[in-house]
Amino acid sequence: MKGYLKNSWVQEGYINGEKNEFLEQIELKRNELINIVAKDGLNSKVAIEYSQQLDQLLNKYNELFYKTGIDF
To answer: Could you tell me which residues come within 8 angstroms of residue 45 by beta carbon, excluding any fewer than 6 positions away?
Structure first.
């Protein structure tokens, strides 16, 4: 039983670390998008690319941490 608990804590730490990495990437991309929109406008090619990248990060985050039911 102790081995199971230890492994479960290790997995929980890994998942929390992965979740935090996703949140950091999302926040970074969000800030980049805000800066690009302020500089080049909402409909600029680069703003659209950044927006799509942010969408992909958010979709992956939701897929990994909400659709699977993982809640740490």
So the answer is: none
